[in-house]
Amino acid sequence: RSSDLSKSSHSYEIVFYFLAASTIVAAILMRNNFVVPTVREFVLLFILGVVSLLAQIFLTGAFGNTNAVIVEVVRYIGILFNATWGLILFGESLSVYSILGGILIIGASIVLSRQKSLE
């Protein structure tokens, strides 16, 4: 469990190993298809990397300091936010499966939060 791991290891250490493993796997998967990014793409990738690093640090810290069920519920609600941003910013349409998935996520979040409040 991540909460057990966070008790024995610092969140930065956990994030480092997660990102190192992800980088190695990504490098292996793109070894034959690598394209050198343009300067603009490199800047965007750098910004994406910094934001992702911060998000991973905060997520790992949250798993260590809070109930994992609550953290997972918040992560799943993030999927709904991403779908909404895609709709607003990029004009992406929501499929029936996206809408049904959103309803399931919201429903599960309500059930889990009620169960947690009863404990």
Envelope shape? flat
**Topology order in helix (H) and strand (E) letters:** HHHHH
Span of the ends, CA to CA: 21 Å
- By secondary-structure content and strand pairing, the structural class works out as mainly alpha
Integer tally of domains? 2
Number of strands: 0
Roughly what is the average pLDDT, rounded to an integer?
84
Beta content: under 5%
Largest sheet: number of strands, sense, barrel closure: none
| Unreliable sequence segments | none
How many separate helices?
5
What features would you describe in this structure?
- 83% of the residues lie in helices and 0% in strands.
- By secondary structure, the chain is an all-alpha fold.
- The chain folds into two domains: 1-66, no CATH class; 67-119.
- Helix 1 (2-8) crosses helix 3, helix 2 crosses helix 3 and helix 4 (68-90) packs antiparallel against helix 5.
- The longest helix has 27 residues, at 39-65.
- The model has no long low-confidence stretch (mean pLDDT 84).
